Recover the amino acids of this structure.
């Protein structure tokens, strides 16, 4: 339950939201750098909750490995990469065919730089066992954190966690 006065989530109630809420709950996060769900920071739980209830396609890359968490609306963007190597995997393993293009855009806010934004970018993506020409509008921005442990882990790189919203122009 979300307690607005203390901004604390308890249990798995932050995992509402269709198929992805269920898959995130079932995923073995202890095998990732995020660790088991019960060890997640309040910041991470809050952002995951926001992503899951959003109807706009959203992807969260968390931590230095850019571990992916996304909502139901983002599933069509992944195509056959859902749920694997989509959920719980580093961004570069999922999007290796476009990583050279998007990495500088995500690295900017991750390393403390300004948010990035692109409009009508052409990406040749392998989403359905073939390269497709796609056009997207998206932006990356750091996720603010009030979590002292999380801030200490990311002192040199600001917050280091990146949220991305996609808009397909296909």
């Amino acid at each position: 339950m979300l307690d607005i006065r203390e901004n604390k989530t308890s249990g798995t109630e932050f995992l509402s939201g269709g198929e992805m809420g269920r898959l995130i709950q079932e995923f073995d996060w202890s095998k990732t750098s995020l660790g088991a769900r019960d060890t997640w920071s309040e910041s991470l739980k809050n952002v995951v909750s926001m992503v899951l209830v959003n109807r706009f396609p959203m992807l969260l890359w968390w931590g230095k490995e850019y571990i992916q968490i996304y909502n139901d609306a983002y599933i069509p963007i992944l195509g056959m990469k859902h749920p694997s190597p989509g959920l719980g995997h580093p961004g570069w393993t999922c999007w290796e065919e476009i990583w050279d293009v998007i990495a500088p855009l995500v690295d900017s806010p991750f390393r403390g730089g300004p948010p990035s934004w692109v409009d009508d970018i052409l990406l040749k993506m392998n989403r359905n066992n073939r390269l497709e020409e796609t056009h997207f509008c998206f932006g990356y921005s750091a996720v603010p954190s009030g979590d002292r442990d999380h801030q200490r882990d990311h002192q040199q790189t600001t917050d280091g966690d990146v949220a991305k919203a996609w808009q397909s122009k296909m």
Q: What stands out?
A: Residues 1-9, 148-160 have pLDDT under 50 and may be disordered. The first helix runs from residue 18 to 26.
